[in-house]
Amino acid sequence: MTSTEMIEDMLERQKKYDAEVFKKHNVTSVSRQQLERALFDELGELMHAQKADWCWWKFTQEPVDVAKVFEEYVDVLHFALMFEITYGDCRYQNEDIEYNYKTLKFDSELGQAYVYSRVLGSVEDDDVLAYVIALGLHMGFSLEKIYKEYIRKNEINKERLAKGY
Asked: Which of 101, 97, 112, 110 minimizes the C-alpha distance to 64?
């Protein structure tokens, strides 16, 4: 699969999952503000999963669990996909991701918190998905690995939904 095909497959899977969630919870839509808040919350969880990298004041801080970091990243991706489905304009092609990756490399010099805040800033440009994918690449995850983890986590989310999560 090409990168665009993987992204489009994730978008289709997310669209189906969102429809199931909406039906189960009797919701017809999610506002832009709700999606922004969900992204903010998940970015906080992602940053918290990396706490050992920046928490200097605590001797009892657990080491960073890369698998947990990756799972939290994929949770951010779920909402970025949802944002793209609802408000995006198909700006997730290779050149969009590459542009955001270069931007992110520059942004990372300003610190991790700034990088994460840029995800929220990208909602103004409807460029969330390309930036979140670029973030994953910057964190060292290949698009193929991101795709596989998204599918795994999407299945877990479906199971949770079926069990009343």
From this structure: 112
* CA distances to 68, 82, 103, 128 from 109, in Å: 24, 29, 10, 20
* b/e sequence 69-92, b meaning 16+ C-beta within 10 Å: bbbbbbbbbbbbbbbbeeebeebb
**Residue 52 amino acid letter:** A
User: CA 137, CA 10: separation in Å to the nearest integer?
Assistant: 16
Give the integer Cα–Cα distance in Å for 152 and 136: 16
What letters, b where the CB count within 10 A reaches 16 and e where it falls short, cover 145-164? ebbebbeebbeebbeeeeee
Q: Please state the rounded mean pLDDT for residues 66-85.
A: 93
Per-residue pLDDT of 46-66, as tens digits, reads 988 988 777 788 888 888 899
pTM as predicted:
0.87
